[in-house]
Design brief:
Blueprint lengths: L5 E7 L12 E6 L5 H9 L17 E6 L3 E5 L10 H17 L3 E9 L6 H12 L4 E6 L6 H16 L8 E3 L8 H17 L6
Parallel strand pairs: 2-4, 2-5, 5-6, 6-7
Antiparallel strand pairs: 1-3, 3-4
Bound molecules: guanosine-5'-triphosphate and magnesium ion.
Guanosine-5'-triphosphate binds next to helix 1.
Length: 206
């Protein structure tokens, strides 16, 4: 899919204040610093669209970006960054939960996983929670440029094997690097496919 336009629309802390439209939303979640905002910039080819930082805990709000005037990319705050303090963590957790569970326009949640790490309990628990709540999701393994593709593939295999212990059907997954633009076509094609399937079933309803 070609990206012809991408613009920032609004940031806020409440899912019920997000844009009042019926357009499908693709949201990015994962631990702080995993590369959510960088991936949004890579997909849209706008390096400064979403704010990124080498310090974890940069994104603190729900951020909507309108793409091709027809669907949204949504940048969410990261989970599991304890240095924020308990009060802030609770607030962010609630924001994430509310968005993920209540936002009708949320079409697919991309869960970002650092491709260099062993399966982390916090990610596995989050995915389990998505399953319990019937949330549609896909996985993106990030920062693949930081190691060889062989190592990344091993790491992906480990993670998917871990998921297989609990899931009969595995979610779609992608390997990405925002530095090298790896995975861009695949992720955008997937979004396009889902957009088409929504359109062919008569659009989103609420
Ligand atoms: P929070 O908003 O804090 O939750 O983090 P985030 O998940 O949005 O991460 P962000 O995109 O801000 O990136 C965190 C750091 O990782 C930055 O220093 C990025 O430059 C770096 N980074 C992100 N993606 C990649 C990647 O694919 N490759 C490399 N080498 N670095 C990356
Ligand atoms: Mg961010």
């Amino acid at each position: 899919m070609e990206i012809t336009s991408a613009e920032f629309i609004i940031s806020n802390s409440r899912a019920d204040m997000c844009p009042d439209t019926n357009l499908p939303e693709y949201a990015f979640i994962g631990r702080s610093n995993v590369g959510k905002s960088s991936l949004i910039n890579m997909l849209t080819k706008q390096p400064k669209l979403a704010m990124t930082s080498s310090t974890p805990g940069k994104t603190l709000l729900i951020n909507h970006f309108l793409v091709n005037k027809s669907w949204y990319l949504v940048d969410l705050p990261g989970y599991g960054y304890a240095q924020r303090g308990k009060k802030m963590m609770d607030k962010i957790q609630k924001m994430i939960e509310y968005y993920v569970l209540e936002r009708k326009q949320m079409t697919c949640l991309f869960v970002l996983i650092d491709s260099r790490l062993e399966p982390q309990r916090i990610d596995l628990e989050f995915i389990e929670w998505l399953g319990e709540n019937g949330v549609p999701f896909a996985i993106i393994f990030t920062k693949a440029d930081k190691q060889t593709m062989a190592k990344t593939r091993k790491s992906v295999e480990r993670f998917m094997n871990k998921l297989q212990e609990q899931w009969e059907e595995l979610p779609p997954f992608f390997i990405s690097s925002s530095e090298k633009k790896t995975g861009r076509e695949e992720i955008l094609d997937y979004i396009e496919e889902v957009n088409k399937s929504i359109a062919s079933t008569g659009g989103m309803t609420d």
